[in-house]
Amino acid sequence: MNLKRNLSQQVEQALKAAGAQNSPAIIRQSGKPEYGHYQANGIMGAAKKLGKNPRELAQQTLKTLVDNIGDSATFEIAGPGFINVTFSKKFITDCLTEMSNDKRLGVIAQSRQKVVVDYSSPNLAKEMHIGHLRSTAIGDANVRIMEFLGHHVIRANHVGDWGAQFGSLLAYMDKLESEGKPLATELKDLEVFYQRASEMFKTEANFAKKAREFVVRLQSGDEKCLELWKRFISESIKHCQAIYDLLDISLSTTDVKPESAYNGELNDIIILLEAAGLIELSDGAKCVFLPEFVGKDDEPLPAIIQKSDGGFPYIATDLAAVQFRAQKLAAHRAIYFVDGRQSLHFAQLFAIARAAGFIAEDQEFRHVPFGSILNKDGKPYKTREGGAVKLATVAEEAINRAKSLISDKNAQLSDAEKEKIARVVGIGAIKYAELSKNRTTDYIFDWDTMLSFEGNTAPYLQYAYTRIVSIFRHASITLEPAGGHFDLDEPTELALALKLLQYPEAVENVTEDFQANILCNYLFELAGLFSAFYENCPVLKADESKRSSRLKLCGLSGRVLQHGLGLLGISTVEQM
Fold first, then answer.
1. Per the count of CB atoms within 10 A, which of 196, 227, 357, 410 is most buried?
2. What is the value of pTM for the model shown?
3. Are 156 and 320 spatial neighbours (Cβ–Cβ below 8 Å)?
4. In total, how many domains does the chain have?
5. 3-state class of 136 per DSSP?
6. How many CB atoms lie within 10 A of CB 27?
7. For residue 171, what are the domain limits?
8. Where residue 55 sits, what CATH number does that domain have?
9. According to the 3-state scheme, what is the secondary structure of 93-153?
10. Angle made by CA atoms 533, 537, 543, in degrees to the nearest 5
11. Which of 295, 572, 570 shows the shortest CA–CA distance to 435?
12. What is the pLDDT of residues 227-253, one digit of tens each?
């Protein structure tokens, strides 16, 4: 049960009964959190609309609340028109029992929508680097949460597999093949492969000429070029999938719909834009000028759909993807998790698509931007040579660092156990470090902070879960829901109980603005309150009635921690 949402609905219904239509209620937790205090605001705004005295409207609202909620809470009018609400202990324990017996932990499924989520989307010309972590981790967490909330989510990995850079790669592949060198061996390290091809393009005129010819041949459907291109793309996708598997990302090869998939639609896009009266010629290029987009000195800012040489920039491909998602897939919403530096591109893209009639009025297409990953000096996180760090390298280092920490913490574990735990802790650490930040801000990538067992980190939460598991291991029982009732007397018990009841609210709030840090902060606070409860309330040594209730409270805390981390794409272990 979402206490805040349910109270909000009750207050809004009471305001409606008092004559205030469409008046939103603002519910805030107040006073000591362990006693279930909430405050209902919004009454003064409703009174102003009605021309009533706020305290008089509050009194009318209060009467309806008492009639509807009854013994569940006590109420009082405070200040100029607030209503203070204190839920009864019985109501809290009843809600907790209901939550404990619910496989969904109180989270109610929403009205089902078809949602396309565009995330990760690496360029297949080279290996995934640390810059891909944000889109991949944020997108995947939100996908998991939306699916749990009941939506039909279509994962869209819009990988870059088309364009001029592939000319160099294909020319280099052709050169290696003509020299009899095994391509499979050369392609094992895509980054090195890409660097060699790029260097040859810069330093060897004949190679550069050949690379340009390969671009034309590829775009013309040349059989030899396509065969080389397919081999390269296949190997690149394998590299990406290995990263997704290592990071426990829910993307698979079936979610890949690359840029090249829309190649045959691009001329049709031009025809449709011309029919809509949107295309204008500018220096030989086919452009769209919309009045809301201007550059320096208020000059119109063009969106180039087809270049003067006949080539198509990626906005053309993106328009084809929008049309496919809006019309063929009939998505209610399409969410794009892409770097904030692309904000202008997406603003133009969606504006053009709407002007052309690709997107219907009731369809939502939204760019969800994010900031950059920085080093300790506040600069973009790169290697000493200046290149972006491979994501595979980051993941492997996280696992190795975690293994060292686990070995120091619990030397009794077997090597196999250390390997398993290190992978869970290391991968969880880098993902949580990403997800626990506001997605719109830059953040500093700091190994010591993210792998700490103290503070708002994945290891801290994972360790909190193992502490709960150890309680049940010592009691020789499982975390599964048990019978009996909750008996809450101590302040730390009530505080933990109320925090547990806020879980549905935390999950639902994430997708309001796709901020996974809301759920991270909730889990961190929950772990802290559990720690306070455990320090102040004996569990296994308590008398029989208290022991049963406190074990139920521990069990529910463990289930919520594990479930919440799972929604973020982070695993748990039984011991650390």
1. 196
2. 0.92
3. no
4. 2
5. helix
6. 23
7. 165-254
8. 3.30.1360.70
9. HHHHHHHHCCCCCCCCCCCCCEEEEECCCCECCCCCECCHHHHHHHHHHHHHHHHHCCCEE
10. 145
11. 570
12. 999 999 999 999 999 999 999 999 999
